[in-house]
Amino acid sequence: MTAATARESVNIVIGGTGIEVISGDAGFLEMLHRQYADFVARDACPSIRLEIDVTAGPEAADAVDDDAELRVRREGNCWNLSRGDFEARYDPGIRRGVVRQSANRHSIDSVIRIIHTLTLANDCGFLLHSASAIRNGRAFLFAGRSGAGKTTLSRHVPPDACLLSDEVSYVRKSGAEFQAWGTPFTGELGTPGANRAAPIEALCFLRQAAENRLVAIGEPEALQLLLTNVLFFAHDAELVARVFDSAGEFVARTKAFRLEFTPGDRAWELVR
Amino acid sequence: MSDCYPKRAANLASRVLRGQAIVMNPVDSSLFSLNETATVIWEAADGRTSLREIVEREICPRFEIDPESALQDAEELVRSLAAASILSPAEESARE
Fold first, then answer.
1. What is the mean pLDDT of chain A?
2. Which helix (H) or strand (E) holds A86?
3. Which one of B15, B30, B33, B39 makes the best mutation probe of the A interface by having the most chain A beta carbons within 10 Å?
4. Alpha carbons A89 and A243: distance in angstroms, whole number
5. Quick check: A223 and B26 CB within 8 A?
6. Which of A115, A138, A263, B38 is an S-S bond match for A201, by CB 3.0 to 4.6 Å?
7. Residue B28 lies in domain
């Protein structure tokens, strides 16, 4: 492959699923190379292809309207995705899509997240609003809404642990157990996770407290809490039911805790 | 009400974990957590078995409660589940 050809597309592999982003805008592709650095694969074969029609100049690169409504709706065999800053159409049957957006890095990041949620829904997996890390060869998930402490905990990851994400974790069943994969989807920490994977040891729901404590929680409560933290954007009853089933299976196979913790690194003593 | 035939609403996603049903309406993602008694009724609500039969067969032996009290509680439960649109109390058995 020549250098000129390589700049026409970027293959972003997350959770083993490659999305080839194709564009004639070299600056946009260069931005993708930087944003998804460790998740860009030059040799892996992508399973999904997205053609990007970049519509505006770099002045719009970081602008996002937080009030813009996100819509993910099925129309025939395709998905229509739209928000104020992008419009996309994705055909899951042939795994091809077209995206019309500015050079905004947040726009393509959102499109990639949504497509992963659609793909995972059919593959016994989901994206989870959680930090995650590998320690002693096993993955730990730390779920919670904004302000729950994901970033705080991520800042204090000990040297013998590997941060998979401070914001969005990729979870999928692999064989008999669920695995967590690193993602480039960042929260306040702003640092992409490591591009690694490990079987999941435990799911912890975060709660900031006066002392560090790990409290086991039952499966029904775990499922309810888990579902409030699963990222899924499509208005589609069939897929929502599949995500529910995946979450139920996950809970039945995974230890769940409430991790009450104080700011600092002492909470990691409980996570081994 | 005691002679109604409760039936689970169609197209719901549900899972029973440790004797407790978690039910989701995938149309609006609304989530319901049923207690142990409600879960027993939910699981038995096939539209062919009357509420009275469910109480006598499933509730009374399991929870050691007298039939009349159990039936009253069950009727209240069915009303609340019906209000949440996750169960319907049909007046006739679906087997007819």
1. 92
2. strand A86-91
3. B15
4. 22
5. no
6. A138
7. 5-88
User: B27 in contact with A at a CB cutoff of 8 Å?
Assistant: yes
ipTM of the complex: 0.86
Instruction: Count how many domains chain B has.
Output: 1
pTM of the model: 0.90
Distance between CA atoms of A102 and A58, rounded to whole angstroms?
8
Distance CA A126, CA B17 (A): 20
Would B71 be classed as within a structural domain?
A: yes
With respect to residue B27, please indicate whether it lies within any of the assigned structural domains.
yes
Q: How far is B96 from chain A (nearest CA, A)?
A: 30
- Put simply, the answer to whether A241 touches B22 (Cβ < 8 Å) is no
Where residue B82 sits, what CATH number does that domain have?
A: 3.90.930.60
Percent residues over pLDDT 90 in chain A: 83
* Spatial contact of A81 and A88, defined as CB atoms under 8 Å apart: yes
Buried b / exposed e across A200-238, counting CB within 10 Å, b at 16+?
Answer: bbbbbbbebeeebeeeebebbbbbbbbbebbbbbbebbe
Which of A22-26, A56-60, A262-266, B43-47 has the least mean pLDDT? A56-60
Nearest CA in chain B to A246: B15
Residue B96 belongs to a domain: no
B29/A contact by beta carbon, under 8 A: yes
Domains and CATH numbers, chain A: 3-121 (no CATH), 125-270 (3.90.228.20)
Q: Would you state the pLDDT for residue A39?
A: 97
Cβ of B15 and A245 within 8 Å?
yes
Give residue-wise pLDDT tens across range A126-172: 999 999 999 999 999 999 988 889 999 999 999 999 999 999 999 99
- Give the per-residue pLDDT at A32: 95
Considering only alpha carbons, which residue of chain A is nearest residue B32?
A: A224
Residues 210-269, chain A, touching B (beta carbon < 8 A):
218-220, 223-224, 227, 237-238, 240-241, 244-245, 248, 251-252
CA-CA distance, A152 to B57, in Å (whole number)? 53
